[in-house]
Design brief:
With 287 residues, the chain is mainly beta. The chain has two helices and 20 strands. A hairpin with a 2-residue loop joins strand 17 and strand 18.
Length: 287
């Protein structure tokens, strides 16, 4: 599917308009291991290890870079083009950087933008229906930070959000340094009504302290979330109270780092910049 810039912008604004703290429960770390996929049957459908020279941009054959602001969530950042805020570090990582700056006089919904950042997606380049969707990454730190690894239904251009469905593999807000959220959004259960749960690290450890692996194992009528191999929730149509299950179709991937908004709140005097979302890899296996 060819995705035009104007469609991406509309989809970005629509998809993020109500994505907020949609969590039904908080899950403590579990000793249960994540489902092990059969190695001999699994096929690598998508992989990016972000290998390349320091300072280079992402692989344009795999990712497209969105631009613009987002009024619907009242986020404060402007998503820039190219490698201005998303580049490889030369050590096998993608680094998405949020800065308190506006050297090019970008305009946002509230006036002159105060921050820049980046958002990438695979729409028109890669979609998947089912499989294990996984990323190893390290989140930023500080009030107002909102990193996310998530998916949207590829039919968003036809049916809109939330009818297209949304699977949030991982969201973190800086005011909750030891907690991440996994959520489903769909028709009749979007925004704060999303179906999901939270996972918290023990002993006050923050997710920003080191890399962690976030994954969903996705199959017909079932999505299971894990952190570092520990399962913390499984969702099926039975959890929706009769509402439509919107997840048996192709989805594309999204990585972004937002600044501020209704859910995380805006940065304050305790927030230091720049802040980074560092991504070691993104992989999708199927079969």
């Amino acid at each position: 599917m060819t995705v035009s810039l104007s469609w991406r912008r509309r989809a970005a604004l629509c998809a993020l308009s109500l994505v907020c703290c949609a969590t039904a429960a908080t899950a403590a770390p579990s000793a249960a291991a994540a489902p092990e996929r059969e190695r001999e049957n699994a096929a690598l459908a998508f992989s990016d290890d972000f290998n390349g020279p320091a300072g280079s941009g992402v692989d344009g054959g795999k990712w497209q870079v969105e631009t613009g602001d987002n009024v619907n969530n009242h986020e404060r950042q402007y998503y820039t083009s190219g490698n201005k805020n998303a580049k490889l570090d030369g050590q096998g990582n993608l680094v998405i950087t949020a800065r308190k700056e506006n050297p090019e006089n970008y305009q946002c919904w509230y006036g002159r933008c105060e921050y820049t950042s980046s958002r990438l997606n695979t729409a028109g380049k890669f979609t998947s229906t089912y499989g294990r969707v996984e990323s190893r990454l390290k989140v930023p730190r500080g009030q107002g930070m909102w990193p996310a690894f998530w998916m949207l239904g590829a039919d968003i251009g036809n049916v809109g959000w939330p009818n297209c469905g949304e699977i949030d593999v991982m969201e973190n807000v800086g005011k909750e340094p030891n907690t991440v959220h996994g959520t489903l959004h769909g028709p009749g259960y979007s925004g704060s009504g999303g179906i999901g749960a939270a996972y918290s690290l023990p002993n006050g450890e923050a997710f920003a302290d080191k890399f962690h692996t976030f994954a969903v194992d996705w199959s017909p009528n079932k999505v299971t979330w894990s952190v570092d191999g520990h399962v913390y929730q499984t969702r099926t149509p039975a959890d929706l109270g009769g509402k439509q299950w919107a997840f048996n179709k192709p989805f594309f991937l999204i990585l972004n780092l937002a600044v501020g908004g209704y859910w995380p709140g805006d940065p304050d005097g305790s927030t230091t910049f720049p802040q980074t979302l560092t991504v070691d890899y993104v992989r999708v296996t199927t079969g």
